Amino acid sequence: MDLLKIGNDIEVFAKVNPGLSSYAGRPQDAADSIEPLLMKALSVVPPRLTNRTPLKLGVRDLVHTNTKFQYNPNWINVIEGSQEGHYLWVAVNYLLDKLGGDYSKTAGVIDLGGGSVQMAYAISANAAANAPAVPKGKSPYITKEYLKGKDYNVYVHSYLRFGAFAARAEILKAKNGRYSSCMLRGFSERANFEKCKEEIAKALNLNAPCKTKNCTFDGVWNGGGGAGQNNIYVTSSFHYLASHVKIIDDKAPSAMAAPAKFRKIASLACRMDVKQDAKIIEILYPKVEKANVPYLCMDLTYQYTLLVDGFGLDPEKKITFVSKVKHGEYYIDAAWPLGTAIETMSPKKKIASN
After folding, report:
1. Are the C-beta atoms of 202 and 306 separated by less than 8 Å?
2. Does any domain span residue 63?
3. Integer Cα distance of 85 and 299 in angstroms
């Protein structure tokens, strides 16, 4: 199964402003806002294929329209964080040409969104068979996939409230005393890397009881580790922050760096004063938006602690920060929509859970 060219490119990206969240209580307006996206998609799909092209939308509600695409009401839903995680795993491994081989050759992914963070990687059949049960109503740890003629057991878990922006609120709630040790001076009187790290550890609930053999944080099973976790790709806010503070080239669609780089820059940033050092901050980190400067110590320390203490990555082992993956002659967005498209079109697709 190959990706089809669309004109001179391999994908089409379009967006509308404002987003769907601004249409709360106005479903018709929400539906109308999506119409330009449907028209854009319709303009690039050959007419002879329109009625055979599946349309899937990750939204809460949509007024049914006379779209020419192949349509099924069941394809309109709100995807859960765990689904987003395993769709991203499918997309990244497809683009890396890792599907169809042994699970040990696949890449693991960690996606840091605004509200949640997802980890997904392939594990052995034996590890999957021994996966612990999850509480009733929670997403299972294991998703079984059949892709390019190969069975995969994909561990995936989504941590709500621990995305890049949502975590800020959790960290501020975990502060020791009146001021947070994670806010730059000028907003706090006691910014300090080590103390900030302690507050983040508390927010992540690193000391939560682990009822299974191995846990990440907040008492969650970590999948057991293994070869599928040897090659990690981190996306979204990980890539944004790393590029904005010059851990990686901000023009590179992907680049490798060790998590320890976050610690090094955080140690410096946490000593800065948001007002007195404003010029220095602007020179060192011109890509960081002014609204995010007060959170610089917090964000850097959080991403380091999340990767190393939360997910258990080696601080000195390089991982890949990615926004786009080179696939043939193209650079394609490392994002979950491609994963769901691949699943939809894959023959003999099996989705079952332990």
Report:
1. no
2. yes
3. 22
- Answer for the pair 143, 211: CB distance below 8 angstroms, yes or no: no
Q: Looking at this protein, which amino acid is placed at residue 44?
A: V
115 is in an annotated binding site: yes
Q: Which domain holds residue 53?
A: 1-78
pLDDT, averaged in runs of 10, over the chain (354 residues) = 72 81 81 88 87 69 52 64 92 97 98 95 96 88 93 96 96 86 79 94 97 93 96 98 97 97 97 92 96 96 99 98 94 91 73 51
Residue with tokens 């850097």: 300
Beta strand pairing call for 232-236 and 319-322: parallel
Residue 116 assigned as binding residue: yes
Residue 182 · residue 202 · CB < 8 Å: no
Look up the pTM and report it.
0.87
Residue with tokens 């490392």: 334
> Which amino acids are annotated catalytic?
84
Residues 252 and 190 in one domain: yes
